[in-house]
Backbone:
């Protein structure tokens, strides 16, 4: 009997140990993960989801092997992280584009921008550059084309004499009341109750190259867990879920 009890405990623990852990930013990925959890269970895995609001953490804990994958970033952000950290994290599956947008509590149209307006933008290199490129496409500034990752120092024309407030991406929505306009990543906009299509005054082109990817360690790109993650998160069921629940803000890329 003791032997049988031990074997039962051993196999129960072994079954429980079959987990897949994914680090994400909350919206909309929290809902997507909740929806897909039963699909992971059908494949024999318990899905463990860890949410972060700070972009700097998910790649670090992936490198430290605390999670199997993460989902929050676009390729330019990943490339810059790998360059800065001499790491080799790899894209596994493209999920969706979340167009960045300009928001304001002070004006309803970009034609109402006035000289000296203060603009809040993300301060991490790739999203800051992306935000400035968005403002350039709106014809508010002009950037030095020779620079890959732009900062306000790379503005060559600033006809409205805009002033820039550089903040962590998660803090930009909270600054809306204190600035004239803000350029906000869609995941943080949604988390703050903002709808990019309905609440923004200028929206990034949907053909943007900034699709978000599931990212894994390079050595795990062909692992069983990675195969399961890709098959589920690129499944027709997940695509339908995104289109049904986030069509106002999200464009699936698979």
Residues:
């Amino acid at each position: 009997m003791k032997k049988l009890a031990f074997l039962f405990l051993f196999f129960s623990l072994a079954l429980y140990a079959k987990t897949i852990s994914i680090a994400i930013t909350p919206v909309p990925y929290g809902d997507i993960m909740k929806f897909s959890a039963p699909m992971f269970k059908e494949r024999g895995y318990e899905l463990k989801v860890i949410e972060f609001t700070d972009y700097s953490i998910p790649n670090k804990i992936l490198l430290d092997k605390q999670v199997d994958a993460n989902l929050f970033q676009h390729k330019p952000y990943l490339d810059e992280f790998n360059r800065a950290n001499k790491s080799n994290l790899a894209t596994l599956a493209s999920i969706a584009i979340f167009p960045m947008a300009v928001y304001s509590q002070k004006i309803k149209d970009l034609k109402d921008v006035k000289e000296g307006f203060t603009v809040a933008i993300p301060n991490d290199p790739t999203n800051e550059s992306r935000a400035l490129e968005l403002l350039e496409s709106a014809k508010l500034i002009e950037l030095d084309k020779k620079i890959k990752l732009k900062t306000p120092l790379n503005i060559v024309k600033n006809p409205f004499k805009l002033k820039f407030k550089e903040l962590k991406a998660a803090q930009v929505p909270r600054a809306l009341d204190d600035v004239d306009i803000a350029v906000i990543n869609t995941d943080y906009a949604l988390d703050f109750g903002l709808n990019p299509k309905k609440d923004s005054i200028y929206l990034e082109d949907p053909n943007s190259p900034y699709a978000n990817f599931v990212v894994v360690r390079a050595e795990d790109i062909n692992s069983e867990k990675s195969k399961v993650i890709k098959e589920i998160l690129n499944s027709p069921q997940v695509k339908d879920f995104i289109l049904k629940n986030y069509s106002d803000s999200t464009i699936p890329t698979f």
User: Anything to note?
Assistant: Confidence is low (pLDDT under 50) at residues 4-16. The longest helix spans residues 2-16.
